[in-house]
Amino acid sequence: MAQSYKSLKEDFVSNLSGGGIWEINYVTAVAPAAVLLWSALQSRQGFFVDYGFAAFTTDFLLNVGAILAATTIYSSAPTALNTLLILPAIALYLVLRASRTRSKKSSHPVLKNGVPEKRQRQASLDPLPERPFITHYRGSMMVVTCVAILAVDFRVFPRRFAKVETWGTSLMDMGVGSFVFAAGLASARPVLKAREAGKTTSIGASLTAAARHSVPLSFLGLVRLYSIKGLDYAEHVSEYGVHWNFFFTLALLPAFAAIIQTLPRSLFSVHFIALSATLVYQVILDTTFLKAYILTAPRDSLLSQNREGVFSFVGYFGIFLIGQAVGLDILPRRQMSSATFVSGSSPKHQILTRLLLWSAWFSVLLFLALSYKTFGLLVSRRLANLPYVLWVSAFNCTQLVLFCAIEVLMFPGLYSTTDGRDESQRCEEATSRVLGSFNANGLAIFLLANLLTGLVNLSTDTLQAGRARAVVTLLVYTLVLAITAITLHLKNIKLKL
User: On the CB side of 208, how many CA atoms lie within 13 Å of its CA?
Assistant: First the structure.
């Protein structure tokens, strides 16, 4: 890569100030709006039950194409795009009756060894049931991330969506934090499974298990580092540092989380530890030389060269733990009376209520942190400070509220069965195949997205690409990712983050 062109690429993503929080909310609202229309088509017409070419194309255009449009050609009119998605969904919901995608079960109980089979099957219900709305949330987050990491190199992607230099908010700043939050949310499942089995794990065993996740991510971090340096690829040093990259941050999270999980639950909650750690970090930033060191120190040692990545890890770890705390709260099956359980509405309403409380809690804390009448702090993804942690947490909890509300509205009987296999089938039918594949194969797709991004940048002058060429390139790129994700999913290959 020519030095002059490399400098142009670096300048293209440097010294940016971002955009407003509410604009980011409008743009990202396209994801739940697209899922709303997908859910209306599925619940009212069973459109995606027979998953052929038409179903895949519609699934892709709704859950990937809409996000691509929101960040490019509709970037200045996200409300219009949301309206185009929501109005047909409302019409389908009001005009058509719910579709029956399964054969109706017999009302007479089948006896097996003198015991109703229905009662026997009740024991087969997973204490950690599938949550389609979480799959939709994590899948959409992955789609936004993959779109942004290539789109940011084209002029069709607004500069206000790219990562800010130091202070401010942007779509990509939220994307990085959301990636960590979603990883924390998913990490709650193995913790809950261990608790359900009554297992107590030593810190040594926990660290050994964490290493299975950390070592591959560390290796990928090294590969990325040597690739960038070897190919003289454009890089934004103030993002993480000279040698550090996002893979190293991801690699450290499981090990530190494993240590936290060995602490007595009766004394320390994950949520309390996350907020305490980020609060202490913020106080240190404001009362010592640390903030100035991170932002202005000369890069004359290994630590100073990578100071952004090293110290921002505290904030990212806080986000990871908050995501895990939310997962620990909403993933387990709620205990209730059999009469309430059969109605099918109470469990999901309980989850929705819990998510609303989480969203309100972090939104209030964010308001207090940002308000000039209280603390008047500024958001900084570069520092991963307290306002950034609260912003990411409030945003993701609100996104979960929206996805959960859609599920409650469109699939009210999702958990009304006492048969685990029937419940699993219902959840499968209530889940987008495209988003489910992105979620199930997050690591593989994220790696492929990074490789394709590098390939496109090395073979194409993205700065000179026109609007149409950029959109077509991004459409082909996302189509390759979607086809790969679904292929891996069909072959039952799952590489989760």
Answer: 5
Q: How far apart are CA 151 and CA 192, in angstroms?
A: 37
Does residue 282 contact residue 385 with C-beta atoms inside 8 Å? yes
Q: Parallel, antiparallel, or unpaired: how do β-strands 111-112 and 115-116 relate?
A: antiparallel
DSSP 8-state code for residue 62: I
Nearest Cα neighbor of 392 from 201, 220, 188, 178 is 178
User: Tokens in use for 121?
Assistant: 């099957």
Residues in the chain, total: 497
Residue 170 in tokens: 């942007």
Measured CA to CA, the distance from residue 18 to residue 256 in angstroms comes to: 31
pLDDT along the chain (497 residues), means of 10: 70 89 97 98 94 96 98 96 97 83 43 44 73 97 96 95 95 96 93 80 78 87 88 83 94 91 76 95 96 95 95 97 96 62 61 96 96 90 97 98 97 85 91 95 90 92 93 97 94 73
The amino acid sitting at 280 is: V
Spacing of C-alpha 428 from chain mean position: 20
Place of tokens 């359900």: 196
Q: Token pair of 496, please?
A: 């989760």
Structure-block tokens of residue 464: 């000179």
Residue holding tokens 């499968």?
A: 428
Cα distance between the two ends of the chain: 32
Write the single-letter amino acid at 198: G
pLDDT on residue 198: 73
Residue 377 backbone zone (phi > 0: left; psi -120 to 50: alpha; other: beta): beta
Q: Give the CA distances from residue 98 to residues 45, 89, 365, in Å, rounded to whole numbers and listed in that order.
A: 7, 13, 40
Nearest in space to 79 (alpha carbons), one of 38, 25, 37, 39: 25
Long-range Cβ contact pairs of 419-427 (< 8 A, separation 24 or more): 419/118, 419/121, 419/122, 419/124, 419/125, 420/121, 420/124, 420/125, 420/126, 421/121, 421/124, 422/102, 422/105, 423/125, 423/126, 423/129, 423/130, 424/130, 425/102, 426/102, 427/129, 427/130, 427/131, 427/132
The C-alpha atoms of residue 77 and residue 73 are separated, in whole angstroms, by: 8
Beta bridge partners of 239: none
Residue 407 near residue 39, CB atoms below 8 Å: yes
Closest CA to 145 of 175, 184, 170: 175
* Predicted structure pTM score: 0.91
